[in-house]
Design goal:
alpha+beta; Beta-Lactamase; Alpha-Beta Plaits; 5-stranded antiparallel β-sheet; 4-stranded antiparallel β-sheet; 9 strands; rod-shaped
C-alpha cells in the first residue's frame, strides 16, 4: 500500500515492506535450519563439509534475500515515482484546462462530450453531470440534431480544423467556434477539441463600423449584405426550431414617375415612408431590408402553414391603404409584392427564395402593366392627377 505524507516525508511504503519481508524470510530460514541442525539440516545437501563453509553459506543466503528485497524495493520506488509524476501531470493538466478562459470541450466521434472545462460549464449554465456524455449539439444548441452549418461535422468529416462565427440564441451570445481534430496512436480520427470564444464584446465595440457596412444610409434598414447575413442566422434558428418562414419581396410602383413629377427628394421620401410601413407591418424579430433602389425584402419566421404566411402580405397592403387614406402625400403609395414560403420540414436556400419572391412580384407588376400602357398604368396606380403633373 503506497502512502506518502503531504509534508514531503516518506512513510511506510511497499518498497520498505518488500525489504523487511526479504530480510525476515532469510532470518526465518536461518533459524529453521539451526533448529533442525541436530536432526540434519535441509541445507546439508548444498553445504560442503568444509570448516566455516556452513556459516558462509547461511550469510550468503541471507544476503541474497536482502539484496533481492532491495532490488525489488528499487523497482517499486521507480514505479511509485512514475505514478506520482503521472498524477502530478494529470493534476497540472486539469488545473490548466480549467484556467483557460475559452469554453473548451472534448468530444468523441459520435458528438459525445467526454471532458469539459470550467468556462464551458459557466457558458452553458450547467454542471458537469448534465454535460458529460451528452451530445454536444444538445448542450450548445438545444436541438436534437446537429445544425446544418455545424463546424464540428465538417472537421469530423474531413479531419481538418475549422473556424466559424455565429450568433447562438441558446446562450444569447456571438461566438467564435474553433474545431481541432484529435487523432489516436494509429493516426485515426478519434474526435475533436471544441473551443468556443465569446466575441459579443467585439460585436458591441465594432457595432458602429459594422452597421455602416450592413445598413442602408437612406432608410436605416439592412442593406443587401446585411440582409443576407442576418437571414442565414435566422434561417438556422428556424430550421433548428422547426418553424416555417416567409420571404417577401416588395417593389415601390412608379418611383420614376414620382421622381419626374415631384422631384427626387420626394422619391427619397417615398422610400422612407415605405420602409416605415414595412417596419410597422412586421415584428421586431423579422428582418427588413432595402435590397435595391426601389426594392425591399423581408424575412419572417414562425409560420406553420402557407395560409398563415399569406396574411403577411394582407397586413402590409392594409397598412399601405391606411397610409393613403390619411392623405399626407400628393400621390397614393403603391407597392407590388411577391412571396415565397418554406415549410418547417423543408430546407431552402435564401437566395433561391429571394429569387422566387422576386419572380412572383415581377409577374404581379407585369399583370398590372398589361392592362394598360406603361406610364398610364403607373399613374393610375399612383393616382396622380393630370393637372398636378402639368404644373411640374
Amino acid at each position: 500500500m503506497i502512502e506518502r505524507q503531504r509534508d514531503g516525508k516518506t512513510g511506510f511504503t511497499a518498497k520498505h515492506g518488500v525489504t523487511f519481508i526479504s530480510v525476515g524470510i532469510g532470518l526465518l530460514m536461518w533459524f529453521m535450519d539451526a533448529a533442525c541442525s541436530s536432526k540434519g539440516s535441509f541445507m546439508d545437501a548444498f553445504i560442503l563439509d568444509v570448516p566455516g563453509y556452513d556459516l558462509f553459506f547461511r550469510i550468503l543466503l541471507l544476503a541474497t534475500f536482502i539484496f533481492s528485497g532491495m532490488f525489488m524495493s528499487r523497482m517499486l520506488s521507480r514505479r511509485e515515482d512514475m505514478q506520482d509524476q503521472l498524477a502530478h501531470s494529470k493534476k497540472e493538466w486539469e488545473e490548466t484546462f480549467d484556467v483557460i478562459s475559452d469554453a473548451v470541450t472534448i468530444h468523441d466521434r459520435d458528438f459525445n462530450i467526454i471532458r469539459v472545462n470550467k468556462a464551458a460549464k459557466e457558458m452553458l449554465g450547467m454542471p458537469s453531470s448534465l454535460i458529460m456524455h451528452r451530445k454536444c449539439y444538445r448542450s450548445f444548441h438545444g436541438s436534437d440534431v446537429a445544425p446544418e452549418s455545424c463546424p464540428a461535422c465538417k472537421t469530423l468529416a474531413t479531419g481538418m480544423p475549422s473556424v466559424t462565427e455565429i450568433f447562438e440564441p441558446r446562450v444569447n451570445r456571438h461566438l467564435e467556434i474553433k474545431i481541432l481534430p484529435r487523432f489516436d496512436h494509429s493516426n485515426q480520427l478519434a474526435g475533436i477539441v471544441h473551443i468556443v470564444r465569446d466575441i459579443s464584446e467585439r460585436f458591441r465595440t465594432d457595432g458602429p463600423v459594422r452597421s455602416l457596412s450592413l445598413t442602408d444610409d437612406l432608410t436605416g434598414l439592412y442593406n443587401r449584405r446585411g440582409f443576407m447575413t442576418m437571414c442565414e442566422q435566422q434561417q438556422k434558428s428556424a430550421v433548428r426550431m422547426k418553424r416555417g418562414f416567409v420571404m417577401l419581396f416588395a417593389d415601390v410602383d412608379g418611383l420614376n414617375v414620382i421622381n419626374d413629377s415631384f422631384g427626387h427628394s420626394e422619391g427619397c421620401h417615398a422610400l422612407i415612408r415605405t420602409s416605415a410601413i414595412l417596419r410597422e407591418s412586421f415584428r421586431e424579430t423579422d428582418i427588413v431590408a432595402r435590397v435595391g433602389g426601389d426594392e425591399f425584402a423581408v424575412f419572417s419566421a414562425g409560420y406553420g402553414t402557407e395560409s398563415e404566411a399569406n396574411a403577411v402580405v394582407g397586413r402590409l397592403q392594409k397598412r399601405i391603404a391606411e397610409h393613403n387614406e390619411r392623405g399626407e402625400c400628393r400621390y397614393r403609395l403603391s407597392v407590388s409584392t411577391g412571396m415565397a414560403y418554406c415549410a418547417p420540414e423543408t430546407r431552402r436556400e435564401i437566395t433561391d427564395m429571394l429569387n422566387e419572391a422576386d419572380r412572383v412580384m415581377y409577374a404581379e407588376k407585369e399583370t398590372r402593366k398589361s392592362s394598360c400602357g406603361r406610364r398610364e398604368g403607373v399613374e393610375a396606380a399612383l393616382h396622380i392627377p393630370d393637372q398636378g403633373m402639368t404644373n411640374i
